[in-house]
Amino acid sequence: VIPLFVLVIPLAASAQSLPIESSIAQTPFGDPDLQGIWDYRTMTPLERPRDLAGKNVFTPEEAAAYERAELDERADYDARPTVHAKFWLDYGTKLTTDRRTSLVVSPTDGRVPGRTAVAQARARARAEKRGRTHSIQDRSITERCVLGFNAGPPMNPGAYNNNVMLLQIPGMVVLHNEMVHEVRFVPLDGRDHLPNGVRQLRGDSRGHWDGQTLVVETTNYTDRTNYMGSGDKMRLIERFTRVDDATLLYEYTVDDSESFEQPWTVALPMTSTDGPMFEFACHEGNYGLTNILSAARAEERQGPSNTSR
């Protein structure tokens, strides 16, 4: 790491409440150094709760009360039967440092914009496919531990595995998510996106530098990709800015006019962690689907009167 100089970073309007003076560093090959393991868990909800309409930021006292209430509610949850033991859950214990009431910063109401008629029809069609499946082949890829549900892109806090390792080599950035050990390679050499007919569940990412900020554009999603109601025409713009040694500001904008009434933007500060980032062992050996099937066969052997579903 090569220290460069001290720079006052004028953050985007989405994070203008965090004016930070930061020592910027470079990699040996001259790019801004964003490397590290970054923790993006937070209590701050994606959307502003409706009972907080018009309130962008908590006071320090309100933030402390909100955090206490959330922890009390989790304690009650822990007392109820659940598929997850308490020690597996890692929602975070603090709001973002600027005490925002939502991760969504645009629109200013802190809410994901309304869905279009096309998106609503697509959601109804997807809902019809949920529930009991006809065969083993119909079970989801998430259940098979093939694709993580908070790794993105875009990345969002979830119940656990809220870490991403960012690595840099000349002409390439690598994003390794803890969730289902997802790895995304982002070329920085100016190459074109894949042809429009080539579609991928996690899209096709290309990056470039805008000053000290890494900008990543992802397109070419499939019609099976769904983020808050998005479709295959989603264009995602992510921005990564290191604002100090301990903080990486992650912002993203969802642009999908077929699905949403307007583009929308999220700002999520990530915190540096020493690690290590452990191997993701889904279902302790990826046996989730095996256990579902073996339990069903056991119920069948017990007879119809003992079968719960």
Structure description:
It is globular, with a radius of gyration of 21 Å. The relative contact order is 0.17. It has one domain (2-278). Strands 3, 4, 5, 6, 7, 8, 9, 10, 11 and 12 form a ten-stranded antiparallel beta sheet that branches. It has a two-stranded antiparallel ribbon with strand order 1-2. Helices cover 16% and strands 27% of the residues. The protein has helices at 60-78, 117-128, 283-286, 288-302; strands at residues 2-9, 20-26, 36-39, 104-106, 163-169, 172-177, 183-187, 204-210, 213-219, 235-244, 247-255, 264-273. It has four helices and twelve strands; from the N terminus they run E-E-E-H-E-H-E-E-E-E-E-E-E-E-H-H. By secondary structure, the protein is of the alpha+beta class.
Identify the notable features of this structure and list them briefly.
two-stranded antiparallel sheet, single chain, globular, alpha+beta, 16% helix, 10-stranded antiparallel beta sheet, disordered N terminus, 27% strand, 309 residues
Q: What are the SSEs and their pairings?
A:
Blueprint (H helix, E strand, L loop, with lengths): L1 E8 L10 E7 L9 E4 L20 H19 L25 E3 L10 H12 L34 E7 L2 E6 L5 E5 L16 E7 L2 E7 L15 E10 L2 E9 L8 E10 L9 H4 L1 H15 L7
How many distinct beta strands?
12
Overall domain count: 1
The rounded distance between the terminal residues' Cα atoms is: 58 Å
What structural category arises from helix and sheet content? alpha+beta
Output the number of helix runs: 4
Mean pLDDT: 88
